[in-house]
């Protein structure tokens, strides 16, 4: 009788987990929290047992579930996950823009004598600085490269302003 109760508790527990998770590990209905048996410290009872059988492990798991020793984990809502994805994409675009700005700085350093008026600017990528960068005559390969980089920076800035 006791084994049937433990087995039923184990099946219900696995059923709960299977209904909340897909095979990829993402929650299906995005609940805020669910019990999980993956806690490292508290589930050492099961992992360090000398005798490893399903019956003993299910008893330990049932005891831990009854005494609320199983750790809770946070499962973000669907809106929260979407916001996190948007934030990650914005961060990658900011990193890309910074990389492009560093390449423009390298072009400016190679052609330092040609650029006048940038010394007084604290941010050379402000509106006035961009005009100076576009209008300055420098040798052709660097001019074309800088023009393309400045166009990319403008496009990324438009994305950030939305």
Topology record:
Elements: H1 2-20, E1 33-35, H2 44-47, H3 54-66, E2 72-74, H4 78-110, H5 127-135, H6 140-161
Antiparallel strand pairs: 1-2
Helix pairs in contact: 1-3, 4-6
Describe the overall structure.
The protein is mainly α. It has helices at 2-20, 44-47, 54-66, 78-110, 127-135, 140-161, and strands at 33-35, 72-74. The chain has a two-stranded antiparallel ribbon with strand order 1-2. Helix 4 packs antiparallel against helix 6.
Write a brief structural summary.
The protein contains 6 helices and 2 strands; from the N terminus they run H-E-H-H-E-H-H-H.
- Specify Rg, calculated over alpha carbons: 29 Å
Element order: H for helix, E for strand: HEHHEHHH
Give the overall form.
rod-shaped
Largest sheet: 2 strands, antiparallel
| Distance linking N and C termini | 64 Å
Low-confidence runs: 1-7, 20-24, 28-38
- Number of helices, where a helix is a run of at least 4 consecutive DSSP H or I residues: 6
Averaging pLDDT over every residue, what do you get?
A: 76
Strand order of the largest sheet: 1-2
Query: What share of the residues lie within helices?
Result: 55-70%
Beta-strand content bin = under 5%
Number of strands: 2
Instruction: Find the structural class using helix and strand composition.
Output: mainly alpha
Number of domains: 2
């Amino acid at each position: 009788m006791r084994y049937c109760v433990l087995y039923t508790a184990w099946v219900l527990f696995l059923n709960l987990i299977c209904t909340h998770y897909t095979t990829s590990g993402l929650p299906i209905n995005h609940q805020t929290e669910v019990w999980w048996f993956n806690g490292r410290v508290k589930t050492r009872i099961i992992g360090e047992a000398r005798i490893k059988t399903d019956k003993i492990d299910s008893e330990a798991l049932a005891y831990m579930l009854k005494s609320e020793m199983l750790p809770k984990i946070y499962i973000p809502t669907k809106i929260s996950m979407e916001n996190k994805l948007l934030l990650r994409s914005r961060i990658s675009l900011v990193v890309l823009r910074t990389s492009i700005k560093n390449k423009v700085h390298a072009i400016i350093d190679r052609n330092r004598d040609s650029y006048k008026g940038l010394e007084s600017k604290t941010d050379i990528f402000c509106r006035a600085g961009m005009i100076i960068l576009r209008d300055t005559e420098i040798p052709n390969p660097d001019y074309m490269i800088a023009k393309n980089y400045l166009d990319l920076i403008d496009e990324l800035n438009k994305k950030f302003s939305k």
